[in-house]
Structures are given as structure tokens and as C-alpha cells.
Write a structure and sequence with these properties.
Layout lengths: L3 E3 H4 E3 L10 E5 L15 E4 L5 E4 L3 E4 L10 E3 L7 E4 L3 E6 L6 H9 L1 H9 L12 H5 L2 E3 L3 H40 L12 E2 L6 E2 L3 E4 L4 E5 L11 E8 L9 E2 L4 E3 L1 H5 L11 E4 L7 E4 L4 E2 L3 E6 L5 H10 L1 H6 L11 H5 L2 E4 L2 H40 L5 H4 L2 H6 L5 H4 L2
Parallel strand pairs: 3-8, 15-20, 16-19
Antiparallel strand pairs: 1-10, 2-9, 3-4, 5-8, 6-7, 6-9, 11-12, 13-22, 14-21, 15-17, 18-19, 18-21
Keywords: DNA-binding, Restriction system
Family: Belongs to the type-I restriction system S methylase family.
Protein name: Type I restriction modification DNA specificity domain-containing protein
């Protein structure tokens, strides 16, 4: 028989932490937490003045306010010196009980629907400011295995997250390589053969002789999007990814979208089906986020699609527009919210290098981008498999003691996939 208990008996909820007013501690904002990532993305230090949630290294931070809870803003606070910190008042803090629960297991438990769904159901308050009820969360009934099983479950799930984090670090290095190469060639003008080319004055300052200053729209077509009527079900839940600013991610590529449309929906809106490696740029709300679509996608009217004219290389165009984002934002319109319009692109003046230089750059950059995309796809598959596995383990439906050789699993993580999908 499965051992059951309540979350409040299994973990400490909002335990006390001693912080001294006037001292500086790590501070975690809600924005630091990226759904699906195990650890807090970034930490800033702030002077503690008495407010905010307090926590120790090893605690789980659980967002209690809408839409952060629904979006899965849950993270494990891991401090290098195993110290303390504080953060947003909208966190519920979950800590292990000595001899009863394991810190890593608690994190995975908190990310499961066993805890999240009752927390969401308990939310109350004014529209847009609804919060989960702490007492209701304490009463959530959970599966409570012994510490050995907890640690084994946490280790299995951590193996996936370790691979994801390793791939993410590799992606960051590749992004840095791409950015450094672009800066070296097209900002500092230290491209191959630059020693033989004279620098001349232009409206944008000194540029290599033979290069031109042009309107950005001489390089790229600026294309728009649109949204099918949401009142017509036949337009939605098809197999065509539908990009909106909500799908913005930390990576350069967009692999999946929150919503999909049908062919009928595509034909009934202003968006085209944009091929892989089209550049999407958000034009409203969070202005100037730039991505490449990893698969064919449609998009809504809050974005623009950029496609190189006459076969102008997309990877170069992507790096070029990223370098101009600050200019675009400065020239954005809107009395209340900044908005990029087509005229914003028309007024953007950029340097157009030699075709040979661009083509050489793209030949070097293409394998870098393809490697990034492959790593992102691997991470997507790892997350999918982890998320299939998590509810089976956390609910106790999968016996980890007799399923497989645990030490061997560490070497071959794919061993579980056929079992999970049964």
C-alpha cells in the first residue's frame, strides 16, 4: 500500500529564516525564474529591509500568484555558500523536514500536478491578482515514499535536468561564438582581408571602402501576421504552429508554440505560413525580441516576419537585426505602449557588406546555428520524456526499485523511454 500524507506534514511551508536588516543578501525576483528550469536563472543582491519571502539553499520557491503559478514558476534555490536569501513576496517556500523528506524530491513534487492543480484551484482574489491559499496547499494529499526512494526518484529526474543544463551551457557558448564573430567582422570590421581595404567616412561613421549604407528594407521584406477568429473552433488546434509574443523564449530558435491553427484558420487570417528560418520580431508589448522559427509557422499581428530579399542570407540578416534592436526600440511608436511599425524598419539605416564577406560569414555560422538547433531539439525531447516520467514517479505508480538497474540508468538515460510510453 502506498504511504500517504499531506504536504504540510511532509514539508515545512514558509519556515522562518533569520535575516538582518541592512545586510545584503541574494535576491530572487519572479522574473528570474524560467518555467521548466530547475534552478533560479539569475541572482542579484539587495539590502534586506524586512520584506519579502525568505529562504535557504535547498528550498523550493513556488509562485502563488496568477499567472506565474499556472505558468510553472517553480525553482530550486541553490546558493554556492549554502547561504540564505530573500525574494518576491509572491513565493511560497517549501523546505524538507529532517529525516522525512528530501530537498530535491520536494522540488519535483512541487512541479507535479499533484501539488500545482490543487494550488491553482485554491486561488482567490481580484482578477489578475489571484493567489493560492497556503492552508489549502498544506492539505494536499501526496505519496510519501521513504527517503531512499525519494532520493532515487529525484536522481532519475535530475539526470534529465543535468543533461538539459549541460546542453543549455553548450548553446550559450555557441551563441557567444556567433555574436563574437559578428562583432569582429561587422562592428569592428576585422574581417578576413580587412588589412587591404581602406576605411572611408559614411553617415554611420567609418566603414570599409566598397561597403554601402542602405535602408534595412533594401535587404529584407517586412511581412505581417494575423489571427483567425477565436470564435470558430475549426480554425484552431490544428497542426500549424501559431507564434505570438507569448512564445518568446531565451533561445534564438522557436521550436513549439502555445497554440496551433488549422489550414482553414491559416486561409482565414492575414498570416502566411512562414518557412523555417524566417526571422520573427515582436512588435508590441515586449518590443524587439528576435527569433528564428525552427519549423514552418504562422504568426499573429503583434509580430513581423523578416525574409531576405533576393535570397539574402537569413543567418546574417538575423545577426544584423539583433545588432540594431536598440535603434528599433528607440524609434518605436505609441503613446502608452511602444510599437514597431513598418516605417520603423524603413528608417533604419544599416551597413551592407560585400556579398563575398557575407557568404563567407554565413558558411562559418551555419554549422554553429545548426548545432544550436540540434541541442535545443535534444532538450525538447528530454523535457518531454522527463515530464512523462515525473507524474508516474511522484504518484508512486512506477516502482523505481525493481524497474531497472539504477547505476546503469545513469549511463543510458534512454532505457526508461519505452516503459514511460506504455
Amino acid at each position: 500500500m502506498k504511504s500517504k500524507t499531506t504536504l504540510g506534514e511532509f514539508v515545512l511551508v514558509n519556515p522562518s529564516v533569520k535575516l538582518i536588516k541592512g545586510n545584503e543578501y541574494p535576491f530572487v525576483e519572479m522574473g528570474n525564474i524560467i518555467p521548466g528550469n530547475r534552478y533560479v536563472n539569475s541572482l542579484n543582491s539587495r539590502i534586506f529591509n524586512g520584506g519579502g519571502a525568505r529562504f535557504c539553499s535547498g528550498d523550493t520557491l513556488f509562485a502563488r500568484i496568477t499567472p506565474c503559478l499556472e505558468n510553472g514558476k517553480i525553482a530550486f534555490f541553490k546558493s554556492k555558500d549554502k547561504g540564505v536569501g530573500f525574494g518576491s513576496t509572491e513565493f511560497i517556500i517549501l523546505r524538507h523536514r529532517e529525516g522525512i523528506s528530501d530537498p530535491d524530491y520536494i522540488f519535483y513534487l512541487a512541479t507535479s500536478d499533484i501539488v500545482r492543480k490543487p494550488a491553482e484551484k485554491s486561488m482567490s482574489g481580484s482578477s489578475g491578482r489571484q493567489r493560492a491559499d497556503i492552508n489549502s496547499i498544506k492539505e494536499v494529499e501526496i505519496f510519501a515514499p521513504n527517503l531512499i526512494v525519494q532520493r532515487k526518484i529525484a536522481s532519475i529526474l535530475s539526470a534529465y535536468d543535468d543533461l538539459i543544463e549541460n546542453n543549455t551551457r553548450r548553446i550559450a557558448i555557441l551563441e557567444e561564438i556567433a555574436q563574437s564573430l559578428y562583432q569582429e567582422w561587422f562592428v569592428h570590421y576585422r574581417f578576413p582581408g580587412h588589412e587591404k581595404i581602406k576605411m572611408i567616412e559614411s553617415e554611420l561613421g567609418l566603414i570599409p571602402e566598397g561597403w554601402k549604407v542602405v535602408n534595412f528594407t533594401d535587404m529584407a521584406d517586412i511581412l505581417s501576421g494575423g489571427t483567425p477568429k477565436t470564435t470558430i473552433p475549426e480554425y484552431w488546434n490544428g497542426d500549424i504552429p501559431f507564434f505570438t509574443p507569448k512564445d518568446a523564449s531565451p533561445s534564438l530558435f522557436v521550436l513549439t508554440t502555445e497554440k496551433n491553427i488549422t489550414s482553414l484558420g491559416l486561409n482565414a487570417c492575414s498570416s502566411k505560413l512562414y518557412p523555417k528560418n524566417t526571422i520573427f520580431i515582436t512588435a508590441r508589448g515586449t518590443v524587439g525580441k528576435v527569433f528564428l522559427n525552427a519549423v514552418d509557422m504562422a504568426m499573429n499581428q503583434s509580430c513581423y516576419a523578416l525574409q531576405g530579399k533576393g535570397g539574402f542570407p537569413q543567418y546574417f540578416l538575423f545577426m544584423h537585426i539583433r545588432n540594431c534592436i536598440d535603434q528599433l526600440r528607440q524609434n518605436a511608436h505609441g503613446a502608452v505602449f511602444d510599437t514597431i511599425i513598418v516605417d520603423t524598419f524603413k528608417r533604419l539605416r544599416v551597413v551592407s557588406p560585400f556579398d563575398e564577406t557575407i557568404n563567407t560569414f554565413v558558411s562559418i555560422l551555419s554549422p554553429v546555428f545548426e548545432q544550436m538547433l540540434n541541442l535545443l531539439k535534444k532538450n525538447e525531447n528530454l523535457r518531454h520524456t522527463r515530464d512523462l516520467l515525473l507524474p508516474k514517479l511522484i504518484s508512486g505508480d512506477m516502482d523505481v526499485e525493481h524497474l531497472f538497474n539504477f547505476d546503469k540508468f545513469k549511463e543510458n538515460i534512454d532505457e526508461l523511454i519505452p516503459v514511460i510510453k506504455r
